[in-house]
Design brief:
The complex is a heterodimer of chains A (316) and B (444). Chain A is built from 13 helices and 4 strands. Chain A has 316 residues and is mainly alpha-helical. In chain A, a hairpin with a 2-residue loop joins strand 1 and strand 2. Chain B folds into 2 domains: 170 residues, D-Maltodextrin-Binding Protein, domain 2; 209 residues, Periplasmic binding protein-like II (D-Maltodextrin-Binding Protein, domain 2). In chain B, strands 1, 2, 3, 6, 9, 10, 11 and 12 form an 8-stranded mixed sheet that branches. In chain B, strands 4-5 form a two-stranded antiparallel ribbon. Chain B has a two-stranded antiparallel ribbon with strand order 7-8. The chains are: A mainly alpha (316), B alpha/beta (444). Chains A and B meet through helix 11 and helix 12 of A and helix 4, helix 5 and helix 18 of B.
Chain lengths: 316, 444
């Protein structure tokens, strides 16, 4: 019997005299999963991996507009590491991510706990809560720009209730207020999604466990921390990572509200990359910043994976 | 300011790059295709324009998105189509805010798609340095034009002009006559102090604001675009060659004036859209702004238009930034000659006059004559006629190629002055240090 294929040729004597087995037909069904995965692999290779590769490559070159590119090795990385502006942007990015995670997930948890209780109009309230999430970013920001206008914005009215506020705050011109405003709008836009996911998780908490804790004398607060929170913590962890990624790649809200200002107070890495590439036309340096951003995003994802595996090990 | 002419693509051999490789491959493929066709048909293939075939030109500009100006340009294109049958001009491009970015990205990717490219004062220099622009000197020579404005000097290399201005905008002080009348102001300011005083008198927050200039950091382009003009009252320049000048006395004074106006007269925090609405609602009395905006107001706020006036700049030098916007021909495009035909059509005196008047522009690029009646009908014009022009390269030095980055550094520091009351000298010293760092990275 001669078997050919995959570059291997073997010869064997027939086992039963002249009786010769027919060659085995390849099992095509074994290839089916690969075949089905092929389109997405090709798509990712062309539209994700290749651009990442090009970005990485460009970080090692200097290319004047319309001119020939020139290999510069790690010079762009050296420039980045010595650039005080870069470190300021990284710090702003991390603080912004943290603030958005805390506010959005925290408020999402609070809203979910409220909406998990029985009250009249609960269905309507749940529907209403999804509105911010359903709104497109641009009109949302435009409305907030009007609300935050120092001359006639409605937020001035609310600020006026505070006893120490004498003049209308310049919401988007003052560094601290601008950062606060950007975090607020980002969290407002994102929290309904987190809230809905937490709500779903809350409904998977066994009611008898909570009931048993209450019977044993636990207060609602104790029951929440001892029973509910441990059950929904994997969901909260996942949402923390999602919120981190959501805030990390946030561009539209920040760009339209403050453009990264004032004085860089809201300039995250996404804004800096855009400015460097498409306003200052320094594509090579933008490539390096992109690599830094990629590493940061990857780090967040890896930390999440590590924590998840640890939790899985603990459960098993 | 210097323009590096050594980067001319025809004069300088380049190493093989991905772009060149693609070009070469394309050329080889075209040659092979052409040779196979020539075997099938031995007849001589004359240029399309000689064969009477229609040539389609892509004119990339932001004008198509500007109320008032778009109609003027569509009229001129239609007139061009009626004047001949061989060449058709197609609309292409993006709104102004996206325009330069998209052109630069196309350039960086290897090829600009348009045959005719509308440019700004900054963009034209970038394209010129990248060897993308064809000379249009032959158009000027054919038309016998000898009075082309000096603003074209900076895009003229070896006696060859590489673009022809179709819109010159110049900064001036526009004001709302009705608000002035109501405040009983009949004497126009003639000094900076008087200007400040009048602006304060016209301010009644939160209902009325004596003066407006862009100052919202989320709109860096218009912020910097307008802030540059504030150096003019003190004859300042933002840079000389590769030396930033933001700590010079004129610039420090300019920022102090901007800060005072912000504190006392601006609608603080109003972005461009809001300010335009406030101006149309007659809540803003004055703007230091380019003449081209009047055309926009005529279309978008017709009730305001009759009240718009301008007065002579209240500083001795009358210096103001004039920005030319040259139409250029893509040297690497397939239709250079046909593109020049369209430019030539636009620049004939009769057509140029018509274009200028339909756009409500007020500064002709050459001595076209016959505009007296038109000027007499523009009551808002007077202030713009009494101006001593300067150009962006004159005030930005070699930083003209890094204008936005320069501007971002400056407006960051100016915003600190506005919102945290940081001393101007201190903030500008920080800006100077950052700009000196930028100077070290200047190309060329």
């Amino acid at each position: 019997m001669q078997v050919q294929g995959m570059g291997v040729t073997t010869r064997a004597e027939p086992l039963f005299g002249s009786l010769e087995f027919a060659p085995r037909r390849p099992n095509w069904t074994a290839f089916l999963p690969y075949l089905l995965a092929l389109p997405i692999v090709v798509y990712e290779a062309v539209f994700i991996v290749y651009p990442i590769f090009l970005g990485l490559r460009s970080s090692f070159y200097q290319q004047p507009l319309g001119g020939a590119e020139r290999w510069v090795g790690f010079a762009n990385y050296g420039r980045m590491l010595g650039d005080a502006g870069f470190w300021a942007v990284m710090r702003t990015t991390l603080v912004y991510m943290l603030a958005v995670v805390v506010v959005a997930v925290g408020f999402g948890l609070f809203a979910a706990l409220v909406l998990n209780r029985q009250f009249r109009g609960r269905t309507f309230a749940r529907g209403l809560m999804t509105v911010p999430w359903a709104f497109p970013d641009v009109p949302t920001v435009l409305i907030f720009l009007w609300m935050l206008n120092p001359n006639f914005g409605v937020m001035n009215v609310f600020a006026g209730f505070l006893p120490w506020i004498e003049q209308n705050p310049t919401w988007l011109l003052d560094q601290r207020l601008a950062f606060f405003s950007v975090v607020l709008v980002t969290a407002w836009k994102g929290f309904p999604f987190y809230s809905l996911v937490i709500l779903a998780a809350l409904q998977s908490v066994p009611a008898d466990l909570v009931e048993a804790a209450r019977v044993d004398g636990a207060s609602p607060r104790q029951a929440f921390f001892a029973v509910t929170l441990p059950v929904i913590s994997p969901t909260l962890l996942l949402l923390t990572v999602l919120a981190s990624i959501y805030s990390f790649k946030q561009f539209t809200i920040i760009w339209l509200l403050t453009g990264g200002g004032p004085v860089g107070a809201t300039e995250t890495i996404a804004i800096r990359i855009y400015n460097t590439a498409f306003r200052f036309y320094d594509f090579s340096y933008a490539g390096v910043l992109g690599v830094a951003g990629f590493i940061l995003a990857l780090s967040v994802a890896l930390i999440f994976l590590a924590i998840q595996r640890r939790q899985e090990r603990e459960v098993s | 300011m210097s323009v590096d002419t050594t980067t001319d693509s025809a004069a300088m051999p380049r190493p093989i790059s991905r772009r060149n490789l693609l070009k070469t491959t394309g050329a080889v493929a075209s040659t092979l295709a052409a040779s196979s066709l020539s075997k099938a048909s031995p007849t001589f293939a004359a240029p399309a324009v000689l064969q009477g075939e229609t040539i389609n030109l892509k004119y990339m500009t932001w004008f198509w998105y500007e109320p008032g100006r778009a109609e003027a340009w569509r009229y001129m294109v239609e007139k061009f189509h009626e004047s001949q049958n061989e060449i058709r001009v197609e609309e292409a491009g993006w709104p102004f805010n996206e325009f330069t970015n998209n052109i630069i990205v196309q350039l960086q990717a290897g090829q600009i798609e348009g045959d005719l490219i509308q440019t700004t004062p900054d963009l034209v220099l970038r394209l010129l340095r990248a060897g993308q622009l064809a000379s249009v000197q032959d158009v000027i020579d054919d038309l016998g034009i000898t009075t082309l404005s000096q603003a074209h000097d900076y895009i003229t290399i070896d006696g060859q002009v590489h673009g022809l201005d179709v819109v010159t905008v110049v900064f001036g002080l526009l004001y709302n006559q009705a608000i002035f009348d109501e405040a009983n102001i009949t004497e126009m300011p003639t000094t900076v102090d008087e200007w400040l005083d009048v602006s304060r008198r016209l301010t009644d927050r939160p209902n009325q604001f004596g003066m407006h200039s862009s100052h919202v950091i989320a709109e860096p382009e218009s912020y910097w675009f307008q802030l540059q003009e504030w150096a003019m009252p003190y004859d300042g320049v933002w840079a000389e060659g590769k030396t930033p000048m933001v700590t010079s006395e004129p610039i420090v004074n300019a920022v102090k004036l901007f800060k005072t106006m912000y504190d006392d007269c601006f609608p603080q925090g109003s972005n461009d859209a809001t300010a335009t609405r406030q101006w149309a609602d007659q809540q803003i009395a004055q703007q230091l702004i380019v003449s081209a905006l009047v055309n926009v107001y005529k279309s978008t706020a017709p009730e305001l238009y009759p009240n718009i006036r301008s007065y002579s700049l209240p500083w001795p030098s009358k210096k103001s930034i004039a920005r030319i916007h040259p139409i250029t021909v893509n040297a690497n495009g397939p239709q250079v000659d046909a593109s020049k035909e369209f430019v030539k059509f636009l620049y004939t005196p009769e057509n140029y006059r018509e274009l200028l008047t339909r756009q409500l522009d007020v500064i002709p690029a050459y001595d076209v004559g016959g505009l007296e009646d038109y000027f007499a009908d523009l009551p808002w014009l007077t202030g713009f006629q009494d101006i001593n022009q300067t150009t962006p390269p004159d005030i930005m030095g070699d930083f003209i190629f890094n204008n936005q980055e320069f501007g971002q550094i400056v407006i960051n520091r100016v915003t600190e002055v506005l919102t945290t009351n940081r001393p101007v000298e201190e903030a500008m010293a920080d800006a100077q240090a950052e700009l000196e760092g930028l100077a070290g990275r200047l190309e060329g």
